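Hey, I was hoping to borrow your eyes for a little while. No rush at all, and the record is pasted right below:
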Amino acid sequence: MKQIEDSRLRLMVFKSALELGKKVDEHLLEMYGLDKEEYTFLLPLKENFFSDGHLKVEIMDTVRGKDVFCLTDIGNCSVSYNMRGLVNHMSPNDWMMELKDGIGACNCHAKTINVVMPLLYAGRQHRRKTRENLMCGMTLHELDQMSRMNSFITFDAHDPGVEHSVFNMEFNNFFATNVILEDFINNLPEDELRRLAFIAPDNGAVGRRDVYLNSFNSTNVCREAGSFIKKRDYNNLVDGKYPVIEHLYSGNSDLTGYTAIVSDDMISSGGSMFDCMEELKDRKAKKIYLFVTYALFANGIEKFDEYYEKGMFDGIYTTNLSYIPEDYKLKPWLHVCDCSKLLAEIIYNIHNDKSISGILRDKSHPVKVLEKKFNSNGEQKK
């Protein structure tokens, strides 16, 4: 593979995001009309771990005068290294240090440095509740002070307000909404798209629910909205979280015949989602789908298998913006939506100083997909 000498664009893709990075590279080559068998934007890297646990990133080609886009996935737990004879798996902290080392390896020669971190590091540590550090804001501020930093690109930040931690570089928070909805609409039969109920699993997800709700602003679709309120036990801290005592539902009490869509930024353990499924089934929801940008499955997927076999939900739509084990991808209920083309478009526009507002705010796309699927009489196209 040859680098494109007359192009200023380079991709620094770390091991954590290599599968996604290769797809992004192919889309960019297609945009530039280049042969993907002959050329690449990927920088050759050496990512070395020493036996004492230290790491070193070495760039094997010049970045002088280049716009470097550093792609990392801090949620990838599959990569391991040896330290003092022990096998360790890379953690978000390890990937964060590797990113900083990679930025430092550019050694001020790059024209601009752009960080692409879909799953935001310490994104849920965004506000101070007790004697704790605001790790997300502190990390963004640290990156903001580094030389040649131009932009920070993330997806579905748990709290978009963390952008106030940066002053020198752009902070761009994108969403995979259109990619997920396009797959969802194309996969479902007509009867499941006629009556949709959009559900927020907690107060923090109401804004995200409304984005999905408004995306189906079509005369062919009957819509409902609902939300859950979490009552927590703030006297006890279990596994870093205050346990949920009860989920209170607000919305239409009768969801008979509706396809329910529960939307959130991520699934970690899935505890809240299981409670939502049970409540929605009690309200006679016909189908239940979960929309999440990140399916982390921190405690495994056995309980999701169990609930699927019981008919408690019908599918989970997520993205490939963060690591999902290969055997998980084979589950009949898991739909992984490919966001590599979207990410390539973002990189292309930023690199070429083009507007990104259309990518950030395009809420008309799902309606266009619906119009392609159904004709003006509301009948499914043959």
In short: The first strand starts at residue 2 and ends at 3. The radius of gyration is 22 Å. The mean pLDDT is 90. The chain has twelve helices and 18 strands.
